[in-house]
């Protein structure tokens, strides 16, 4: 089969599309013929050598969609021919990938392969943040950073589907405009405005119930000021790798707030299975028949993985970047 590989860590140009060995199917796995694969920041960090590849599969790609073409001896949940999406331990940047069947989900009705491939990683973080660790309800207030990105845009859509009031931040006017198309109640350029002041003004000083943060140290104090009493700051990413942050303890203690991080790569098999069951129970019903909730910025063929990574590195994308295993596909930017 063909796969996107790299012989040494470095910039996007180290990626190559070449023939590799077919995956070996374990007894509890299914073999998926990949139709699309989502591009994530983790792919870039591993390629650069910044982030360790924790999976047994040596190829990039941590979410995909496609069709089950073979099953291991103990895999019986979904039949051959099922159209699925999956959370992976790597391997999505290839024509075929072997996946434990517990990590495979049927595609919500109405979604394309491209949209389905954009969901597993984002939905995992969103379910953990909004459902498992927060239990958000109608009229709760949520502050979502990086709201124009792959995770952030879906988070805004899900929060609005739950009836929440959404404050969305982005780092350019173009991305702020995009956040408005997501139906965010308030769209803020965090590089030009103090978003904590906007939150205080629009909530009459009560703050938000939850902050979903992928920015990190630069905005910690503003995040804590934005939280309501009992609110939660949930960190799902960062701009600078493992940079130290200082915390104003007064804001943390006086409002009984909680700071937590989420890294699904630390989850064991049971925790991942329970998470994916929760996603299908709580998020899938919101997505079924609503393809407009999944925003695809651009599609590239696997042979154009260099261009896809370059686009993400420049932070120019709005929504998700998706790779397709076709060498004949012209690059397509979607509005």
How does this structure look, described?
Keywords: NADP, Oxidoreductase. InterPro entries: ADH-like_C (IPR013149), ADH-like_N (IPR013154), ER (IPR020843), GroES-like_sf (IPR011032), NAD(P)-bd_dom_sf (IPR036291), Quinone_OxRdtase_PIG3 (IPR014189). Residues 10-323 form the Enoyl reductase (ER) domain. GO terms for molecular function: NADPH binding; oxidoreductase activity, acting on NAD(P)H. It holds the Pfam family ADH_N. The model is unreliable at 331-335 (pLDDT under 50). Helix 3 packs across helix 4, helix 3 packs across helix 9 and helix 6 (195-202) runs parallel beside helix 7 (220-226). The strands form 3 sheets. Strands 3, 4, 5, 6, 7, 14, 15 and 16 form an 8-stranded mixed beta sheet that branches. This protein has helices spanning 41-48, 113-117, 120-132, 150-161, 173-181, 195-202, 220-226, 249-254, 269-282, 284-287, 305-313, and strands at residues 2-5, 16-19, 29-38, 63-71, 83-87, 96-100, 104-106, 141-144, 165-170, 186-189, 208-213, 227-235, 258-261, 296-301, 320-324, 332-333. The longest helix is centred in the C-terminal third of the chain and has 14 residues, at 269-282. The chain is an alpha/beta fold. The chain is built from 11 helices and 16 strands. 46% of the residues are buried. It has 2 domains: 2-121 and 266-333, Quinone Oxidoreductase, Chain A, domain 1; 134-261, Rossmann fold (3-Layer(aba) Sandwich).
């Amino acid at each position: 089969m063909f796969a996107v590989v790299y012989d040494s860590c470095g910039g996007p140009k180290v990626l190559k599309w070449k023939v590799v060995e077919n995956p070996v199917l374990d007894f509890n796995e299914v073999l998926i013929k990949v139709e699309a694969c989502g591009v994530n920041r983790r792919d870039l960090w591993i390629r650069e050598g910044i982030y360790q590849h924790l999976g047994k599969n040596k190829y990039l790609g941590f979410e995909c969609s496609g069709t089950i073409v073979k099953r291991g001896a103990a895999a019986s949940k979904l039949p051959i021919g099922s159209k699925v999406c999956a959370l992976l331990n790597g391997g999505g940047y290839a024509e075929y990938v072997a996946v434990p069947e517990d990590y495979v989900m049927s595609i919500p009705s109405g979604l394309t392969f491209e949209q389905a491939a954009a969901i597993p990683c984002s939905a995992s973080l969103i379910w953990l943040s909004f459902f498992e660790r927060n239990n958000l309800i109608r009229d709760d207030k949520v502050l979502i950073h990086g709201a124009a990105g792959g995770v952030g845009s879906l988070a805004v859509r899900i929060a609005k589907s739950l009836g929440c009031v959404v404050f969305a931040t982005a780092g350019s006017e173009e991305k702020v405009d995009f956040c408005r198309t997501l139906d965010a109640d308030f769209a803020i350029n965090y590089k030009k405005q103090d978003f904590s002041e906007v939150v205080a003004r629009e909530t009459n000083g009560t703050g938000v119930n939850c902050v979903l943060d992928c920015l990190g140290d630069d905005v910690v104090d503003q995040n804590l000021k934005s939280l309501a009493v009992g609110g939660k700051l949930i960190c799902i990413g960062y701009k600078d790798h493992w940079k130290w942050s200082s915390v104003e303890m007064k804001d943390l203690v006086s409002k009984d707030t909680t700071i937590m991080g989420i890294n699904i790569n630390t989850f064991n098999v049971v925790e991942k299975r329970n998470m994916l069951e929760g996603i299908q129970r709580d998020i899938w019903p919101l997505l079924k028949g609503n393809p407009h909730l999944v925003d695809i910025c651009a599609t590239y063929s696997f042979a154009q993985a260099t261009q896809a990574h370059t686009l993400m590195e420049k932070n120019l994308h709005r929504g998700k970047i998706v790779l397709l295993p076709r060498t004949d596909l012209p690059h397509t930017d979607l509005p």
